């Protein structure tokens, strides 16, 4: 649940400055799941225009980012690709109480760069012309786990498991297909929504819901700035950017 009252970014940072005797905002470091590539840069740029604070971004698989935070990485805000990692971090006292919130609902897509291939469904991946299928490692990336669940739901896991090549995160899986090292890739819908190739949106009923959740690190040295960016993402402007990028949105609270 959202524990903070939403205030304009300028008001939040102004209150912070008053509490810190007019000192400039602290550097803000944001860790974001790889599926947010493009979206997080746009969110950060819009936030900087409004607040004057430039977030430093670090993208990777959710599991890797969570491990880095556990090991002391100086992240102020973590945007995960699921809810489970944030809950585990919160349970260990690494996410500040009351700061976690679902900011987007993830959608998985099967992407086939070469539209001449006769692949229009997950079931078609079992065909002989598909040799390699890129999937993010399911133990590292929630989208990779969802992809495996979708393949199993489609009933072709045993026929395609030998074709799967695993990537470190969802962006790397997409890149494997883009470079020709895989014939198809399971990735995040926003990463391929307006690009070349054939995009097959995976039915959300084929896998567990992907509730992308954020939270402020308990050890954050830039708590007011992290709070302001959190509220920006959850507010009208942030939601508009995420929606335009192809994310489904949770109901606003």
Task: Put the structure in a nutshell.
The chain is an alpha/beta fold and 253 residues long. It is 36% helix and 19% strand. It has helices at 9-19, 39-51, 62-70, 84-91, 142-154, 157-160, 170-178, 189-192, 223-234, 236-244; strands at 28-33, 55-60, 77-79, 101-105, 108-112, 133-136, 164-167, 184-188, 198-201, 211-216.
Write the layout of secondary structure elements.
Blueprint: H1 9-19, E1 28-33, H2 39-51, E2 55-60, H3 62-70, E3 77-79, H4 84-91, E4 101-105, E5 108-112, E6 133-136, H5 142-154, H6 157-160, E7 164-167, H7 170-178, E8 184-188, H8 189-192, E9 198-201, E10 211-216, H9 223-234, H10 236-244
Parallel strand pairs: 1-2, 1-3, 6-7, 6-8
Antiparallel strand pairs: 3-10, 4-10, 5-8, 5-9
Keywords:
5-stranded mixed beta sheet; D-Maltodextrin-Binding Protein, domain 2; 253 residues; alpha/beta
Q: Could you characterize the architecture of this molecule?
A:
The chain has about 250 residues and is α/β, with parallel strands linked by helices. The protein starts with 8 loop residues before the first helix and ends in a 9-residue tail after the last helix. The protein has helices at about 10-20, 40-50, 60-70, 85-90, 140-155, 155-160, 170-180, 190, 225-235, 235-245; strands at about 30-35, 55-60, 75-80, 100-105, 110, 135, 165, 185-190, 200, 210-215. α1 (about 10-20) runs antiparallel to α9 and α9 (about 225-235) crosses α10 (about 235-245). The strands form two sheets. Strands 2-1-3-10-4 form a five-stranded mixed sheet. Strands 7-6-8-5-9 form a five-stranded mixed sheet. The chain is built from ten helices and ten strands. The chain has two domains: about 10-105 and about 210-245, Periplasmic binding protein-like II (D-Maltodextrin-Binding Protein, domain 2), CATH 3.40.190.10; about 110-205, D-Maltodextrin-Binding Protein, domain 2.
